[in-house]
Design brief:
mainly alpha
């Protein structure tokens, strides 16, 4: 791996490890801070919503100042809230710290999308986007499995503090090794650019398909520890956290990027949404192997959907791609943030209620992906004529 590749991998994986760092240890946070499952789920929600807000700073800034500069600065700044997260005395303080983390994350998570697509062309673009998504998979694995193991051995506070190490390593790598791109010095009014992108129905459908899948993914994985630690499985928190290792299915994402480039991202999306729904439904079965298979299927579908939708963005807009990505990420992360809270409201009714809420979201996303596929086919046909 080249130094720039290593920088992007370390920085992105550290960012994503922080995003979901509380997900596998929610029961410990609930117990220690004396809050409900839905309230503890807000430690995911506030991050995701702050990412959606921060994207409107990072995306336009990257259009003006250069992608790499914004990414490196964000990687350095996020080290501060990460270092103090484990010191939070109560839930409001923890939510404030998590919101700060989330606000800084788009400096990499949003900006990396146009950075990668602008530096690579053709089949290499699919492979590069897949590799970037794979780094997020690795970070999510560390953030979930790693924190679960450390929390089981010590406490959730130590688990969160331990993430400072990879975060600092990612920041140093990004600052030292990431090639700088030239600022674009765009002068066009941001409001006019956003209004134009907001009228782009294909861009909105693409974001809705991605966001609906993300809602289901976050909803299932946020409350999966409750499913696995309750009857009939009765696993310990540490053992339940190990099942987040199903994220390794993200290793297939670079291959999915190749497939998307060959057959067309918009044609692949409906299949990926259907697969996500099947994965969520499998977690209803009272058999541990089947539940794990469902989680793996959902995770693989989610990561593949992210890569496919991100590959579509530069095909749907011709300018201000950083701002277009901000709009995409806003829809995506707002829906994901809702997924960390809304399904938890029905957790007391049983796991089937959580799955039902997530499957409804997937159905909405599937409808959006079909609409996008039809619009893209009509557009391409018109271009041929």
């Amino acid at each position: 791996m080249t130094r720039p590749g290593a920088a992007l991998f370390l920085g992105a994986s550290a960012m994503f490890a922080n995003m979901y760092s509380t997900q596998a240890i929610l029961p410990d946070i609930e117990s220690d801070l004396g809050v409900s499952a839905a309230a503890a789920g807000l430690t995911i929600t506030v991050v995701v919503l702050a990412v959606a807000l921060g994207g409107w700073v990072a995306g336009p800034l990257s259009d003006r100042l250069g992608r790499a500069r914004v990414m490196a600065a964000a990687a350095v700044l996020i080290c501060i809230p990460t270092a103090i997260a484990g010191l939070a005395p109560n839930l409001p303080a923890l939510l404030a710290i998590r919101a700060c983390q989330g606000f800084l994350m788009p400096g990499l998570l949003t900006v990396a999308v146009p950075y990668v697509t602008e530096r690579f062309r053709g089949p290499a673009a699919g492979a590069a986007m897949g590799a970037y998504t794979a780094s997020l998979v690795f970070g999510g694995l560390v953030g979930r499995v790693g924190t679960a193991i450390v929390a089981d051995l010590s406490s959730w506070r130590v688990a969160l503090a331990a993430l400072t190490i990879p975060t600092v390593a990612g920041a140093v790598a990004m600052w030292s090794w990431l090639p700088r791109d030239e600022p674009r010095h765009v002068r066009r009014n941001l409001r006019a650019v956003v209004a134009e992108h907001a009228r782009n129905a294909s861009l909105l459908l693409n974001a809705l398909a991605a966001g609906a899948t993300f809602f289901a993914f976050v909803g299932i994985f946020t409350f999966a520890t409750h499913r696995l630690t309750a009857a009939p499985f009765d696993l310990s928190l540490g053992a339940a956290g190990l099942f987040y290792a199903v994220w390794v299915v993200g290793a297939v994402v670079p291959l999915v990027g190749h497939v998307a480039e060959r057959v067309g991202p918009e044609r692949l999306l409906p299949f990926l949404l259907a697969t996500a729904g099947a994965g969520a439904a499998l977690t209803l079965v009272d058999n541990l192997a089947v539940v794990i298979a469902g989680l793996a299927l959902l995770a693989g579908s989610m990561f593949s959907t992210v890569t496919t939708c991100q590959l579509l963005i530069p095909r749907l807009v011709s300018h201000h791609r950083g701002t277009a990505t901000s709009l995409h990420q806003t829809i995506y992360y707002v829906l994901g943030g809702a997924g960390a809270y809304i399904p938890g409201l029905w957790l007391h009714d049983g796991w089937h209620a959580v799955v039902a809420a997530c499957c409804v979201a997937v159905a909405v996303g599937a409808a959006a992906s079909l609409g996008l596929s039809v619009r893209r086919s009509d557009t391409l046909a018109g271009d041929v004529r």
